[in-house]
From TrEMBL:
Annotated protein name in UniProt: HAD family hydrolase
Organism for this UniProt entry: Acidisoma silvae
One GO cellular component, as annotated: cytosol
Pfam families attached to this UniProt entry: Hydrolase_3
Listed GO MF terms: magnesium ion binding; phosphatase activity
Domain of life: Bacteria
UniProt keywords, alphabetically: Hydrolase
UniProt lineage: Bacteria, Pseudomonadati, Pseudomonadota, Alphaproteobacteria, Acetobacterales
Length: 267
């Protein structure tokens, strides 16, 4: 294909390293994209606020999407599109994830709500999304306008089984995806990275065929399908790699910078 005019990028496991920092090579590669006239936009399972810390070092002036596409904001932080989970589906998701032994987190009204503040991965998530949490005894009062429900566990197999069962139970009522091996994400059925990528491309006046996407997890696959060029990180699963046109090095080995340079030299 000819050189893309837009790159939409996943964040965790992709544009940041495993310690959640930007590699110097990534910051320099983002600058090379700008110099080449290629726009860069972020699409993540993080809340949009968790993307703000990346905007300045990456030189971003583009819309972004959080919660796997449930909340899309323009460059000024104004909401462009929003999809919350239907309340019945939200209640069923919370109940099933708790029954399956996962720690449940609810993102609603700009808050991160949880019951167990000693759960695994809370510190890691806080580092990623740059927001605090609030402990509640009952999620029920907050389930009317939820952007994302998450189940977390350090038992990866438990997460996989829970995700499969929950997806079957919810059907088309909500989307169930894996953003990390230790997470199960539940969002509105219309909230996926593919829809978000198409909307961002439209806002920037870019044909999706002229868009490239880069990611590492199954929740990135809709973004791959929406783009003319799909790039998998070296740390991605074999299934994600099989859905990509190109595979680069992992996120701790300058893979993102490699991808940016390969894009720049296309066409």
């Amino acid at each position: 294909m000819t050189r893309p005019s837009l790159l939409v990028s996943d964040v965790d496991g992709t544009i940041v390293r495993h310690d959640r920092t930007l590699a110097p090579s990534t910051i320099l590669a983002a600058a090379r994209l700008r110099q080449a006239g290629i726009r860069l936009a972020l699409i993540s399972s993080r809340p949009p606020g968790g993307l703000a810390v990346l905007r300045t070092p990456l030189g971003l002036d583009t819309p972004c999407a959080g919660f796997n596409g449930a909340l899309v904001q323009d460059a000024a932080g104004r909401t462009v599109a929003e999809h919350t989970i239907p309340e019945d589906a939200c209640r069923e998701a919370v109940a099933r994830l708790e029954r399956d032994g996962l720690d449940v987190w609810v993102f609603a009204g700009g808050e991160w709500l949880l019951k167990n503040e000693n759960a695994a991965y809370i510190a890691r998530e806080q580092l990623s999304i740059s927001m605090g949490w609030r402990v509640v005894s009952d999620f029920a009062p907050y389930l009317g306008a939820v952007h994302k429900v998450m189940g977390s566990s350090n038992d990866f197999a438990r997460c996989a089984v829970a995700a499969t069962g929950l997806s079957a139970a919810l059907g088309e009522a909500a989307a169930v995806l894996r953003s990390q091996d230790y997470y199960v994400d539940v969002t509105n059925a219309r909230a996926n990275k593919g829809e978000a990528a198409r909307l961002i491309a439209k806002l920037l006046g870019v044909d999706p065929a002229e868009m490239a996407a880069i990611g590492d997890m199954p929740n990135d696959l809709p973004m791959f399908a929406a783009s003319g060029l799909a790039i998998a990180m070296g740390n991605a699963s074999d299934g994600v790699k099989a859905s990509a046109h190109i595979t680069v090095a992992d996120n701790d080995s300058d893979g993102w910078a490699e991808a940016a340079d390969r894009i720049i030299h296309l066409g």
